[in-house]
Each structure stands twice: as structure tokens, then as C-alpha cells.
Specification:
alpha+beta, 11-stranded mixed β-sheet, Penicillin Amidohydrolase, domain 1, 849 residues
Amino acid sequence: MTEAEAHDRAEPPKVPAPPTPWRRRALRSVLWGLSGLLGLLLLAAVAAGLWGWRTLTGSLPIAGGTVALSGLSAPVILTRDALGVPTVSGHTRLDVARATGFLHAQERFFQMDLQRRQAAGELAELVGRAALPLDRRSRIHRLRARAQRVLAAMPTDQRALLDAYTGGVNAGLAALRTRPFEYLLLGSPPAPWRSEDSVLVVLSMFMELQDERGDEDRRRGLMHDRLPPPLAEFLLSPGSDWDTPLEGPQLPPPPIPGPEVMDLRAPVQKAAQARPPVGQSAPSGKPEIRRPASGSWAPPNPVPEPELAPGSNGWAVAGAHTASGAALVASDMHLGLAVPNIWFRAVLRWGDGPPQRRARLVGVTLPGVPALVAGSNGHVAWAFTNAEIDASDLVIIDPDPVDPSRYLTSTGPRHYETHVEAIGIKGEAVDRFEVRESLWGPVVGRGPDGRARALRWVAHDVEGVNLGLMHMEGALTLVEALEVAQRSGIPAQNCVIADTTGAVGWTIAGRIPRRVGFDGRLPVSWADGSRGWSGWLAPADYPRIVDPPSGRIVTANNRLVGGDALRILGEQAYDQGARARQIGDALLAIQSATPQEMLRVQLDDRALFLARWRRLALDLLTPASSGAAPRRREFRDLLEHTWTGRASTDSVAYRLVKAFRAQAAELAFAPLLEPLREVDSHPPSTPGRSMEGALWQLVTRRPAHLLDPHYASWDALLLDAIDRTAAELTEGGRPLDGRTWGEANTLAMRHPVSLTLPWLGPLLDMEARALPGDTHMPRVQGPGFGASERLVVSPGHESEGLFHMPGGQSGHPLSPAYRAGHDAWVEGRATPLLPGPAVSTLHLVPANP
């Protein structure tokens, strides 16, 4: 068969026949069905979206209208301005406390919940096993049980205020159409508020601001146990060129111990401490960067920030030195930065009739507590900085040689009290562990000798915690305000105060233990009764300063007093004083202070502290030391040409100098602290927060007997610190000239939820922005740490006051007040302390009985 014949016989191609009518109807039915299904799916998606939106918006705070609130004696009016700043106006203080609780719950309940749970050790119950280590650490203190005892002993007026506040919190939570969005994501309902929870919030601040584990005592004790005493005193001395007390002489830098105390170059010590050098520079100037082996002195990169700690700036300028003639108070409290911010701005008003019967408070509140923390009552203004006094002691427990389950006391052997703590874990079985308590406090660990250590801490004592600060609301004079501060039961704070007469003063707010038989610096045994605490310091015995000759009072977590007063307060971890010096000098240069000038001082980012470290580095980088090392030449060039004299975001030099100092500290101190490794697998890498006095002595006086024997000279050690800094910053091929301070100091202000659900970060977190400022200057700033507010106010002149804070008022991401005002904080803009015009009004009225 030919190809043509085959083609002719092949079946013709089939052409689809047009659909018959029934097929057309069937196809139409299928299409209609599919479109209906798609429509239903679309409607379901829209409905789900609407449900989700309604659910999410249902937890927005109520801004307007009328809400019935049980327990009110009269209506309360709650207005908000464009930033969400409320003014709460009521008839009585109790009504305002109840309304404040309502407001806090509507805006910030999740924040309040986390704070009470953190103190009580109840986070795992809400968020799961990841929080169990934190809960175990907190449960050692059994703070919920202690909060209950504090509440039971509370004076009637304070208890009534707390109970009214608690009623308002639970009413505010119940008034939301849906639970706060965090609980929807966690799949857990919020637990009601109890009055003891407000005490827990106060106790959470003790944990934030004080040494709740006795770590400072432990560190000092370890150094005194393992190092020659003169060397330990040298390393731990708070004295430095920066020391700036309010009264008394400056503590000089510590004397360098001689070779008879320690000689690292002696043959015996060199043999005992032999090790290969780490990071030793090659002729090219490129160091060999290795992670140190076990037992090595030199630290791994990157070097952590050893001196960043909760603190604050707070000062007062007497009326004789201000433009208005009214005294000024300035406050910026330095804390960890998170979303929402720790503080909640408010104006609280109550009373009617003549002015003497009316009250108005302006400032910041702490969600979870009804009192104003810092601000003005129109007669006095007050602000706080962490006092860094010694509020806790590690007690060495002597076991009973006859029965090791008991311990010795002055009245004979005693058994420990044992408490089984049950920690709820979301979705899992309860975790149980034992807490042993001694006569002096809970057992928190063991010392190198194997003996148990107990913690005696102000926060453990019923008399150490109260809401006495609320009486600041009624103080009319400086003297009255000082007395209120001295009777308050808060974490010990420097309290700076000004009144309407132009007077200024300082004292300690918070309870101060009276020690007997020891100074509290080191762990000691209290078994024989010759050492211990004997009650509390009487208010009349508190140190205080009123109207100093300079007319300025500056506190910045530094040592403020000496002599007997310092012995009473004790030494915890005072800042070395550079911030206080810079602030004080700036204030003395201002003859007629204004709120705007006070804000400029708060924003001062001049790098005065590190200037001498830059000069030291430049002196090291000579043509002889850098000629064959291109990286060193580049380092010097950047120090010379990118130094702005400030911790500015575009400065490469500032970052280089800061990192150089940190590396120098690690290399200089490592061999001196090496004996600590014999008893501690994680010894401190530096002496602590006040290390500058000892460090500057070492790098300038350069004692050969305290130099790491693997370096030929101190110049070699310091050049190695420069090389290590450059190598760290160029790791991975990154150019050194691009490593700006802003790259390192970029804001990381996050919501707790985004830490576990990072995809929610764009909705919940504040924008990552490079920020100026650093540790040893007035503008304290780190990525997740810094000024939690900036406040400037004159009592009676609140309309001239200034305020801004990171984040917004609201804790709800869909609220217009969630980020409102944040940019002013980032940019350092002056914005008014008082709220602007009201944009919403909510009426809270008494509920029918």
C-alpha cells in the first residue's frame, strides 16, 4: 500500500460535536455550582476576615460613651488627647484609683500580667515550658506568699486604694468585647487581677533594680577568697578620676599593688600560668583570631558590654538658677526597652471646691499600681535614679556538725523550712521543686567551700515593701516630700525633689537595713549572732542634702556620699561617675536654666569618657608600630577623621574606641582574675561596673609585674587589643570604614509576642532605627536599653514641662496611640508634658446597686 493509499484509508480527524442541549445545561449547572462554591468560599473568607477583624478590634480600649462601673461614689470623666494621654477626673481619690485600674486594664493588661507573673514565677502557666527556668529562678523567693503577707499588713488607706484599683482593673478587662489579642494568640484566658498582684508588680521592680541573687556579694567574696587582699581591693575599688559625689571628697584611684602581692612575670607564676598567646599580632598587623581554648584567659569575640545596667539620670536645679525662678526637676530613667513601654502617662485629678481641696498629679504611672511614680503634684516635683545601695546580703550557713540537715544559729541548731513549689506549665504536668528557707532567707546556692548561702534581701521582708510613695501625692513642701520618700517601701532610689519655693533636695527613697557587726561587702556567717540586720534605719537617720551651695543636685547611679553615710548605705555597684560629671558640668555652665536646656543636657551624647581612650590608641599607632600593618594605619586614619566627639550614628571612630577599650579591659584583667577559674567555671571577665579606676591605672602606669607574661610590653598588649578589635569588625570581609556606631546601636524595641512569632514583628515592634548615645554619657542608649522617659517639670508650672517616651500609650497595635509620640523620643524633640486637647471622652458612672 502506497503512502497515498494509506492516507486515503485513514480515518478523518474527529471534530467535537457541538454540545447537546442537555450537555449545555449540565455544563451550565457545573459552572453555576463552581461559582457558587467559589462564592461561598469567598464569603467564608470574608466572614473569617471580618470575624478576625472584629475579634481583634474588640479588645481596643473604649474611648467614648458611658460605662457603668461598680464601686464609684460619683461619676468619673476620662478624656484622651491625640497621643492617647488620659486625664482622669473624679470626686475622690478612691474613685480615681478605680478609674485608673479600669484604664490600665483596657490599655495594658497583658503587660501587667507579665509583670505579676514574672515576680511570682508563673510565666510557664501562660506561655509554656520555655519560661520554666525563669519561673524556677523567681520561685526561690516565693514572692506571691510574701505579697500576701505585705497585703495583710498594709495600712488601711493603702489597702483601700489597692482594692479600689483592683476592682477597676477587673471591670476594665470585662468591659472589652474580646480578650486582649495576646491571649487569643496564646489560646489562654486572662486571669483576674488580685490586690496582691499590685504588690507583685512592685516586687518585680525590686527584681529589676536590685541584686536578687546576691551576685555582687558572690563576686566580691570570690575575689577576696582567691586573690591577695590588696589585689582584690585594687580591682574592686569604686575610686576613679570620674568619681563625683554630692558631698565629701572624691575617692582617688586605687593604688596598684606591688610585685610582692602578685608578680605575673615571676618564673614560678609564669610556669604555673603558661599558655599559648591568643590573638598575637603577626608582622602584618593581622592577628590570629582564635576562640580561646579551655583555661585560656583571653575572651572570645565579641566582647559583651560589662557596664550597661539599669539606672537613670535625675537632677534638680534650684529656682535661683532658672530663668523662671522656679526650681526644675529632670528625669530620664534607664531601663530595658520593650513594647509597650513600662510607663503609662496620665493626669489624675480629684476633689472640688477651693484649690486646697483639689489635687492634680502629672507624670508617669506603672500599670499594675495606682500611684504616680514620678512627676509633679503642683507643690512638689520628684524623680528617681537607682541608688545602687547594698540592699541584700549573702549569708554563709554553717551546717550542724551533728546533723547536716540542720544549720547553726545563735539560739542553737535549726531545721530548714521546706516549701514545695508547684509551677504550672501550659499543656503539661505541674513541675515541683523544693525551696529551702533559713532563718535569714532562702538558700540560693553554695560557696566554693561547699557551704550553703542564704539571701537576706529587703524585698523578702514585710516591712521592706509598701505603697507609702502614694503619700507623695499630698506633700506640700520639700521637707514633707523627703519624709515620704524615707518611709516608702520601694527599691532604694535616689529621690531628687523640688518645691514651689525654689528649694531642692535629695534623699534615699526605700527601706535601708541597719547592719550590725559587718559592712555587707562580703558573704559572712551570721551563726553566732554577732552579725546581721537589726531592723531598719529610722527616717531621721537617712542621709539628705537640701539646697546645696551650687544650687544643683545631680544623681546618675554614682556614689553620692562618703564617710558614715556611705557605710550605712553600703556598696553595691555604683556607676563610676562619668555621666554625673558630664551632667553636673553642663548644669554649672547654664546660668538661667529652662526646660529646653534641661532636655538638651538629657540628650548630650558627647564622648568625654572615651576621649582619653582615643588619645591612647592614637599614641600607640605610631609609624613604627603601624608601618608594616595596613590595618593599623587604617585604624588610625579612621580615629583621626571620623571622630565626631560624640556617640553619633555616623561615627566609625566612636565604635572603634569603645571596642578597643573593651578588648583592653579583657586582656588586662584576664591574668589577674585567672585564680577564680579554679573554683568557678564562669568567673567574671572584668571586675565589674566600676572597673575604670583600676583599668586606667594599668594602661597608663603600666606595672610590669601585672602584665600578662605573653606580652613583651603593655604597648604590645594594647596593640593586640586594637588588632583584635579590627579583626572582629572586619570578620567576613566587611570593610572597617563601614562599621559605624549606628550599625551597632540600632533600636531593637520588641513586643514579647514577636520574640516567638517574628512574622508579627512589623505589626508589633517599633521600627529599627540607628540611635546616638551610649553608656558613659547623659544620653544613655543601647539597642534594647535606654531612657524609658524624659521628663522636665517645675512644680506649679506643669504647662511649661516637657515629656516624651519610647513607644506609645496603648498596648494595642491597632490603636492610633500604639506608636504615637515615639518619633519625638527617637529624634529628641521637645513635646509638652501636659496632654493636648481632648479628642475623646469616656464617662464612668456608678453602677446601680
